[in-house]
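Most newcomers find our protein records easier to grasp once they have seen one. A learned vocabulary of local backbone shapes supplies the integers on the structure line. Here is such a record, shown just as it appears in the course material:
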Amino acid sequence: VIVIFLHALYNYGKHINPSWFPGTTSDIQCILLEGPRWVNPAPEQPKHKRRKVEPEGKETEPPALTVSKCVPAESAVVLTQSFLTAIRCWSILQYLKKELSRLSQHIRLDEWPWFQSFLIESLIYQDQHKEAIAKLFSAADAATDPTTKNKVNLQMASCFYSCGESSFCLQADGNPVTGIKAACSKLLDVVCSLPENSVAASATPYHTPETLHRKPERKLVFACYERTEVLRFCMKTLITCFKEKVLMQFSRDDLALGHLIVMTQYDWPEEEPLFVKLLDVIKKQGNFCYGLFFNYLINADMLEEFMYITTANGGGVTLDLLPTSTTQVGRQRAVTRGVNKGAKEDLKLAMEKQMARCDDDLEHLLVHFVQQEREILEQQL
């Protein structure tokens, strides 16, 4: 078992971070992340087809595990198989503590960076997020380079998100915050210090996971640590967090609503159904105030929809979108009433001018949005 474990651990480490092994040709680094849980319930089965006995403890079902398409298909198979083999062997070795302790001291196992990485990622895979967070805090204290810090923050965000809104987590300063707020704080840290390297993005960024009998509740991915893929993970998770806040709360918050609309530009048109829901919220309110609109909204389809909802046929919504400074945004009035003809004309001209920005670099714009408005984004959560 020990030999199999060490062999699997070596192959796992070589594919996670080739720089740990001099002489390897690949420079692709990977990191295990847990995406937002699938919350859509499975369609109800007819009674005569329903299982007689449901398995106990849904969490025992293995998660779907896939790998970024930045990693060649052959290497992706080796990585997942090595990782899962190492987990199985490690669980068996827990029953051989004396032998394991002797071996660890002899080969200085604790000093292997790929072993420390394995310990954290095996905890994430096994849904032991609080234990993983404790190890990640230790890793954060020891981290000296930006890449390691970013990786730690990404995995912390992944774990914090999995803890959820109802779970409180301790920050490094000892203050308790909800899992969602802690996750977003770490994601914002990462976006503000994204890696510079980028590879060609794939339309479907991950390899197809192994087919399972039932769609698992959890979805994990060995993501490639490069700019585009890291930004994708951060933006998709931030969108999910803000969506839960905006659509599932009863109090009105135009600022959070506006931030979410800006972020939905990232994965257009995949996020179009969400944008339609947000427009419905605005129509029901009858008015919408977001002073950062012209700073960050450049999607042509969205701009056209906003112009349409101001018309009689579109709902006659009152919009207050005049640019304002960041310091004023937090104090802006929540509701605007009565827009004269001149103001409507100003809005139309501003929208037409904004259309000229539709070809701006969206990735750069959204990174700038997070960097400039970070404090306000955190306050909204």
